[in-house]
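Q: What would this chain look like folded?
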Amino acid sequence: MIVFFISGHGFGHASRQIEVINALGARAPGLPIVVRSSAGRELFDRTLAVPVEFQGGACDTGVAQIDSLRLDAAETVRRAAAFHRTLPARAADEVRRLSRAGARLVVGDVPPLAFAAAAMAAIPSVALANFTWDWIYEGYPDELAGAPDLLPALRAAYAQATEAWRMPIGGGFSAFPVVRDHPMIARHARHAAADVRAALDLPADRPLALVSFGGYGTSTFRFSSLDCLDRYGVVFTSGTAGPPGTTPPGVVEVIEARMYARGLRYEDLVAAVDVVVTKPGYGILSECLANRTAMLYTSRGRFVEYDVFVEAMPRYLRCRHLDHDALFAGRWGAALDALLAQPAPPESLPTNGADAAAERILEMIG
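A: My prediction, written as structure tokens:
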């Protein structure tokens, strides 16, 4: 039995660990796996290829988002401090779960609770991530002044891990006793771009831009104001179809349930378009890298990972910044033109991290 503790913040943590679980299932069919996470169950149901026992519930508090592009630093620190103040009691409760499950290994991405509980249960544990929460929260020094015990609590828990597997483009990891570099975990398209465009009724005669802002959606955009619809198709996904006539010509709404019913996944859509318009997060960045799709990105607030991404992305990805004013005013055309005129990036990153993780995990459990 392997137990995965997965942060519920955003989609990146869950999407990459699902790839690891699928790779494990391909190598060791029938391997019992438990997932502990507050991430949306529907993501697991849609993309897991193997059965798991899903145990919902918060493993950490992540970052308090106001919306897709803004966060509340004070509330972020307040929630994290309140949660981790009770870490010993939470870990003891998790020990009972681990014992009942007969767990042999804990994998965490990257809640400190995972490693505190594993150590208390005398079970080996591995952190598999590109950042650590203490590194993220260090970016809020003024807010941390009222929570002096938070970072020491996180680092004490991280220090109890057996080791950490650090993916590229991130930071932190100073508290872990053993750190090993690990390839990026990414979701790769399984269908040809032309087939995806045909299956989803996407235009085949023009470049496509996919609007991707995670769980907060696209409700703040006025697609009718876009200045690029004469030469670009703009695509967005939604859970349910909007009222008829609300989507202007040149804009295509893809209903997620229909996409999955056709045997397609989100990464197939990423690979089928020319550009993703987004905020940089690990999930969408890794998919653009793996599928060689350009990224038109905007800033995402005070999140230290963003600065690291912006510095690293031009080495591996065709990308260009679009400020909030231009984003919401619909002035996308010039930026899209310039982005698609850029040469290929000078370097590439291996994106076989799921397979590499599965092999390492199976070695650890013998």
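The mean pLDDT is 95.
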